[in-house]
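Homework help board

Subject: predicted structure for assignment chain

Our instructor gave us this sequence and asked us to write out the predicted structure in token form, then describe one feature. I got the tokens but I'm not sure how to describe them. Can anyone check?
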Amino acid sequence: MQKQRHIHLIGICGTAMASLAGMLQQQGHSITGSDAAAYPPMSDLLAALNIKVHEPYAESNLEPRPDLVVVGNAISRGNVELEYVLDQRIPFCSMAGILHDEFLPGRESLVVAGTHGKTTTTSMLAWIYEVASRKNPELAPSFLIGGVAENFGTSFMVRPTRPFLLEGDEYDTAFFDKGPKFLHYFPDAAILTHVEFDHADIYPDLAAVKTAFKRFVNLVPRRGRVVAFDGSENVSECVANAFCAVERYGFAADSTWRVADLRHDETLSRWTLLRHGAPFAELSLPMAGEHNALNATAAAALAAGQGVPAEAIVEALATFRSVKRRLEISSVVEGITIIDDFAHHPTAIRETLRALREAYPGRRLVAVLEPRSNTLRRNVFEAALVESLALADRVVLANVFRSESIPVSERLIPENVVARLNDIGTPAAVYADADAIVEVLTPQLRAGDIVAILSNGGFGSIYQKLPRAIAHSIAAIERA
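My token output:
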């Protein structure tokens, strides 16, 4: 029997770390954790698991002394708990390392990687396997997803069956391991969605990003498969020297898996999926956006190749319920729909706004962006950001999150983005923080508006403050 241990997680509120905490708890370990800031959905997940989050970081959080400490990849030297761990020689490891050692031996590792679409595609794949397991219990999946999959109400599941589905992150692993996390997962089969320059804080250029993905592809055994998007030269380069079979998916006529006759009806997408040019299935998905149809196609292709029946794939995609913070309707107040989306890269922002245009035709679209990710806080994507945000009818930017941590020469200047948007006819403005945005924006909104809040963090609790302010504003008008 496996020895049960006290395991402490530093940076427990990260999406993968919170999920790992639940997985380790499910294995019978005693879990403690700490973070600098906790916010939904991961704070809600940890609360539901009765795992207390200690705030802020402190040496006392490591009392009693844990058997093992998992150090999150956002934790750097100088963190008070990490320094205590090193001084006291408490055994420590990374999230990816313990995942490999504790959960993957003897499993079939299916990994979804790519610059965009990982979370949604992994969630779709997990739900496909879940539906298929109703007739074949051996297909019941274990999974680790970088977000809360709404079909499951969780971001993780651990079962005794073989399939283990993982979102493969190209970000670095820990302060002592600067390689990508996905290099620890040794996939039996994999999906590669997109390859673009991202994570400008750790990758110097696109070439370095492509090198990471090439190494990932190189881990897949000859008996395995890589399902790879056909609309990207970068993806093509990354799979060119694969030792395993490569199946392309997308719109190209010669791809193994081809999307045909794609049509959208507000929040419903339908298409014919062709396999080697022959009809495989008629698919429907209760989500808008071409990118979501492509994500679903990738999940369908990988599952089918692993022996999942077509009828299970059709049923699963038709009943898929998305992921928390991915085009999620946060609230509807006085006819104003507030959307919460994790968009953290200009391409993701573009696809999110395109999908909202398809889902809500004819309605005014207001984009509210917090430049928070390590990529968006830098000026390398300034031109691409302007191009993406121009898809909205109006744009509101917050100041760069923790701008002081970005060198001035590399830092995004929101005023530059706003000026360029105004120059091309898209009204835009920048405000200091969530409170200022709520104060200015609330009286300008009207019934029928779609407000897309774009951030990969808590954004000053704007998701709660804006609907509350709208409701109070309407109530004050009615009282008058």
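Reply (TA_rk): Your tokens look well-formed. For the description, you could write something like this. The domain at 6-94 is CATH 3.40.50.720 (Rossmann fold). That's the kind of observation they're looking for.
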